[in-house]
Amino acid sequence: MPTSLSAKKRLRQNIKRRLRNRAIKSALRTQTRKLREAIKEGNINTANEQMIITVKKIDKSCAKGVLHKKTASRMKSRLANALSKLKGEK
Question: What is the pLDDT of residues 18-69, one digit of tens each?
């Protein structure tokens, strides 16, 4: 356990940030799962709606520092490719 005041404050900040990051990552994973399920089912309309929401969540998590900029870009690219394959099939 920390003994100095600044170390105690740093511990409190780290706990808050960890909880916030976990919540954001969890919501992002859930949203990504919804999008992948819509793509798997072949429902283009639902997949398009879910894609918009997912990209928004990815961008927000990147802006808050939860995800790295290039990680966010890679995720969006892979999801967009999966969606475009679905559109190309139909």
Answer: 999 999 999 999 999 999 999 999 999 999 999 999 999 999 999 999 999 9
In whole angstroms, give the CA distance from residue 87 to residue 85. 5
pTM across the whole model:
0.87
Paired tokens of 64: 């808050």
Check residue 86 and give its pLDDT. 92
Tokens of 24: 């954001």
The residue behind tokens 């920390």 is 2
Joined together, the tokens standing for residue 76 give 């969006």
CATH number for the domain formed by residue range(s) 5-89: 1.20.58.110
* Cα 75 to Cα 20: distance, rounded to the nearest angstrom: 20
* Cβ atoms of residues 2 and 11 within 8 Å: yes
**How far apart (Å, rounded) are the C-alpha atoms in residues 31 and 42?**
17
